Amino acid sequence: xxxxxxxxxxxxxxxxxxxxxxxxxxxxxxxxxxxxxxxxxxxxxxxxxxxxxxxxxxxxxxxxxxxxxxxxxxxxxxxxxxxxxxxxxxxxxxxxxxxxxxxxxxxxxxxxxxxxxxxxxxxxxxxxxxxxxxxxxxxxxxxxxxxxxxxxxxxxxxxxxxxxxxxxxxxxxxxxxxxxxxxxxxxxxxxxxxxxxxxxxxxxxxxxxxxxxxxxxxxxxxxxxxxxxxxxxxxxxxxxxxxxxxxxxxxxxxxxxxxxxxxxxxxxxxxxxxxxxxxxxxxxxxxxxxxxxxxxxxxxxxxxxxxxxxxxxxxxxxxxxxxxxxxxxxxxxxxxxxxxxxxxxxxxxxxxxxxxxxxxxxxxxxxxxxxxxxxxxxxxxxxxxxxxxxxxxxxxxxxxxxxxxxxxxxxxxxxxxxxxxxxxxxxxxxxxxxxxxxxxxxxxxxxxxxxxxxxxxxxxxxxxxxxxxxxxxxxxxxxxxxxxxxxxxxxxxxxxxxxxxxxxxxxxxxxxxxxxxxxxxxxxxxxxxxxxxxxxxxxxxxxxxxxxxxxxxxxxxxxxxxxxxxxxxxxxxxxxxxxxxxxxxxxxxxxxxxxxxxxxxxxxxxxxxxxxxxxxxxxxxxxxxxxxxxxxxxxxxxxxxxxxxxxxxxxxxxxxxxxxxxxxxxxxxxxxxxxxxxxxxxxxxxxxxxxxxxxxxxxxxxxxxxxxxxxxxxxxxxxxxxxxxxxxxxx
Length: 731
Fold this sequence. Notes:
The protein is mainly beta and 731 residues long. The chain is built from 6 helices and 70 strands.
């Protein structure tokens, strides 16, 4: 028996020695002193069990194990000197994933002792995945590496599908994923086995969801690390589906969240505290990472005017919205989020609620399903004083809302988007559009639906909105130049000058739609189109050609108060769709506005119900005031120019000129509100025959208080004569 045991031991030792004898160590050295100068050459020359030993240098290449169960290591492998991790770099040169395991490699496929950087991911299942390391159908071991400065759509640092990987003594930081898993993204039954002895570090990564860690349809994950971005991460840092499908074992937080408002400026510095306007941070994404969530006293990130973009402020889009944290710009026109046509700009996903995004322009986004804004999975953000414009024409949608999300769009302008399918697409959600302008958008001739907003299986409410100059051009689906709607309430909306190639130049209704107090005029083809099973209810509205302006075979409930009359728009910028004093739409809206969810003001900021009864359309005519003089520019040899800019936000200039050598002595310029109340007065005098005078009004009254948005009249009085014009102050 003893002899048999001795013989068995001898055989085992012999086999092991035989294996060692035939396992090679292949040297890679850029100086030419080794066997090869590139790592991939070493891999290609290796067989299972070999070691590819890499000497310090920066290797600009993208390596693939090609199914070989080999060890690739820096000199850290033999010396355990961590300096070799920093000095032995595999740089992907933005030419794909830096390291790829995709051919059934097992746990004896080892990557050890490298810095993995500058990767850009692998195309897989329609997305770009695994900026640093891409793993599919493999079970490799990664030890003592630094994975940093990589980028992808999914899994900026590591992406793993149908795989089981071992991760030890590895630091994953400052990687960026446009969509999910800035540090790590797992899906499809993948598992990461974190070492509890030689712990990893995962921190300061960024993505639209799950900045550091994201998993989808995987088994429960045990996240065991030494250092994570924060000690107690929420869904901003870790996103899993199913939710909370992980356990945490974290020893240290890389940063301590700041529980107060933060300030950001393009002229700031991310090394600043961000606690006040004098020490602003530079990027919004860093502020979102640094700020704490406080459900009892929500915090706000304040943005100074300027352009926030990847090239100017190192901004990482899409912004990962967080519940209870609002982002508020300094001004709609001058606080600009510019995606530079690289990605979507704002994501609100997986229950992002209790916050608003205000006072900014969002432009130049690029993502098929919401180039500017994507809202999904039970999220209910508020967008206020926002302009969304100029999305990448190759994209299908500028704004995408889906999966039981209920956003509020208030004072939002969506304009100048040329888009593949529809500028705004809402499905399985109940959005509200209040005081919005949808203008000058168009769809391509390939796959385009509505030129403005498309609602599918939604119950939207649209109030006080102007929808004009939009085009649905597709020759199969081009329906609803302004709106393609289902179960919707349309209240005090002006829909004009839109075009659809098939049906519903203004509105196309596919289900049950209610239209109240609205103008649908001068659209083509036809004013309203209907799907066969649609039911359309219209009351107190001005519809061109009446019932004859409605096409299709849907059911029409033509109720009381409807008219078919030229609306008599004022014409000319900026409020060309306001009503003239003689308009038949004035005081012709429903006598009872109970339950219509009307805001207190119209689209221009004027009182919504004026002179006792609401008008039809988005604007309330304000001409019945205590000033009896007409709005005129030239009386008695004096020209009173339109103020510039008009409308204005902060200040405006008023210019007048006398002519024909009429001597002007004392003059006064008075500003009134629509109630005829004096707001501000400017007095002056001159003895010249030719007068050119410019007066600047900063929007304050006689006591220096800022006046409310709305329409104002300015009246010039001189030598017993008077001239009056209108101007508008914006919100």
